[in-house]
Design brief:
There is one protein chain. This protein is of the alpha+beta class and 157 residues long. It is built from five helices and seven strands. The chain has a seven-stranded mixed beta sheet, sandwiched between helices. Helix 2 runs antiparallel to helix 3. It is globular, with a radius of gyration of 15 Å. The two termini are 18 Å apart. 37% of the residues are buried.
Length: 157
């Protein structure tokens, strides 16, 4: 899967998607470090240890460089996304539980991470080993970086 590039100075307005999720009782939050074990356990259970390892690095940064989607009524994690986890200026990994897909949670998590990156001074973001390229292109105008597959992940053990 190729990497993709996003212009952080041209992000779409995220307020409508956040408002829609809030009306459903879903909030996108930057977690506190006391939630680390719960979040990493949920990621491991739903997406595997590799992604949990990457997000673990987010908890070593200040501010924490990940966000989670939470159903406030059920106090349940529905999705996650991180940035600056494996490499600086990289978005990902990200995932939404199967039963909550199609609600806009993935897009909201993507936008919230990219907004945080922009606010921290980045002009561009790289989506590493982007799976759903059409999704990223549609949501944030991401473009494929030619010759980037397998990219920075080529030396995985």
């Amino acid at each position: 899967m190729p990497d993709m590039l996003v212009k952080l100075y041209e992000l779409p307005d995220s307020r409508p998607i956040y408002g829609e999720l809030m009306s459903k009782g879903i909030e996108i939050v930057r977690p506190m470090t006391p939630n680390k074990s719960k979040i990493l356990g949920w990621i491991t259970e739903n997406f595997g240890a590799g992604w949990a390892d990457e997000i673990s690095a987010a908890f070593t940064r200040h501010p924490v460089s990940c966000f989670v989607a939470v159903d406030r009524q059920e106090k349940k994690i529905l999705g996650f996304a991180g940035y600056d986890c494996t490499y600086p200026d990289f978005f990902g990994p990200t995932g939404v539980e199967k039963s909550s897909r199609g609600l806009g949670i993935g897009k909201a998590l993507l936008l919230r991470c990219l907004e945080a990156m922009r606010d921290e001074g980045y002009g561009y973001a790289i989506i590493g080993s982007a799976g759903p390229c059409d999704f990223y292109a549609r949501c944030v105008g991401a473009t494929v970086i030619e010759g980037s597959s397998p990219g920075v992940y080529k030396n995985m053990i």
